[in-house]
Each structure stands twice: as C-alpha cells, then as structure tokens.
Amino acid sequence: MKKISGSFGIKEICFTDRLVAAYFVYNAISVIWLIKSGFPLGAYIRDFLVFLLPVLFYFAGRAVYTGKAEKLLRYFMIAAFMVGVICMLISVTGAIGMRSERWIAAVNNMYSTWLGNGLGANGKGALGFEDAHVITDSDLVKMYCEQGIIGFSMFLYILILSFKKSFRELKEYRVELGIIAAALILSIGTRIFTFPPAAIAFWFAVGAVFRSSVTEIGKAKVEV
C-alpha cells in the first residue's frame, strides 16, 4: 500500500528527502562550533537567512503540479535563476586565479576538517571578525570550509542523486538539470548559493527532479 503525504502531492518520503533534511539540520546546528571557534552569532544568522532557508524550497519542488501551475513554476525557476546569474556575473571583479590564494588560506584555517567552521564563518557576515583571507568569493569553497567533509559530502551526494535521475529522464527534467548544472559551475567563482533568488531556484529544481508524477499519484490512490 502506498501513502500520499499531506496535501502537497508528495509520495512516501524518499532517501533524498531525508538526506536534504539531514543536510539542513547539520548546517543549523553548526552554530555550536561556529560560536566555539570565536565567531559571533551575527555571522550565522545572515547565512541562515540567505543560504539555509532556501534549502527548504526543495520540498516545494517535490510537490506535484499540473497544467498551467507547472509551467508557471518552471518559468519562475528560470527567471529567478537568471536574475541570480546576471547579478553574480556583474559582481565578479577578479579572475579565479587571483582568488585562489584566498581559497587555499581559507581551507588551511578550518576549525575542523570533518565538521568545518560552521555556517557563516567564511561569508560576508564574518567581515570584521576574522582576517579577510577567509572570506571566499566561491560558494563551493565556502561550503567546504563551513561544512567540512561531513556536510559537503551530503551536498555532493544530493547533487549526484539529482544528476543521476535527471539524466535518466532527460526529456522530463532538462530544465531542472540545466539550472542545477549551471549553479554548480557558477559556484566555483561566485556566491550564487548565498543569493536568495538563485538559491531558491536551485533547491526548487533539485526537489522537482524527485517530484512524483501525476500518474504515480493516481496509481497510489487506487492502491490505497
């Protein structure tokens, strides 16, 4: 017997749902070692709002949408992501080679290789509380430094599962795949995951890859 969760059209909780939830909780509790390593709570709060809250839009993407609603949400994803991309490209003022020294310095100054520095430690909210070299202009490096091997591995595994499913059903998820891939590439040299419109579009796209189809929902209701 299959069950439908609530009124959002989400089928039974899948492994990726649990992984995303664990990733959210892990980043949320990282405030413990962030404070322990000497950073102020303000650095955490800023990144909690601009980086962590958008993760919850994964579950909005997981819901089933039909007809015009699905088209409108796809347009929203594309528009929000393009706004983020344009803003990030405008803000890029230096080449990757010029920033790589800061990335190396940030990695070499991690509080814990496994746990990381804690959410916000390598973001703009930490300016004035730590040497400027730890402020990375790469969200990918920032995420590794703040989340450590444990949290960053969760994120990478979520991406692997997303790519695996979207490639398998490329015709269905080509838009979502494009957004996820573009965000990953841009995160090497920009702060796209800490720009809310782009971050929301990214997590919505990841969730949409794992959404249940209308056909599956109908079959589940028949089998109940």
Q: How many separate structural domains?
A: 1
Mind summarizing the main beta sheet? Answer: none
Uncertain segments of ≥5 residues (pLDDT<50)?
1-8, 213-224
Number of DSSP helical runs: 10
- Distance from N terminus to C terminus (CA atoms, Å) equals 6 Å
The shape is globular
Instruction: Let me know the number of strands.
Output: 0
Mean pLDDT: 81
Strand content of the residues, in percent?
A: under 5%
What topology emerges from the helices and strands here?
Elements: H1 15-29, H2 31-36, H3 41-52, H4 57-61, H5 67-91, H6 96-108, H7 139-168, H8 170-186, H9 196-209, H10 214-223
Question: Summarize this, please?
Answer:
With 224 residues, the protein is mainly alpha-helical. 66% of the residues lie in helices and 0% in strands.
Account of the protein in words:
With 224 residues, this protein is an all-alpha fold. The chain has one domain. It is 66% helix and 0% strand. The protein is built from 10 helices and no strands. α5 packs across α9 and α8 packs antiparallel against α9. The chain is globular, with a radius of gyration of 18 Å. 38% of the residues are buried. The N terminus and C terminus are likely disordered.
Give the tags.
224 residues, mainly alpha, 10 helices, globular, disordered N terminus, disordered C terminus
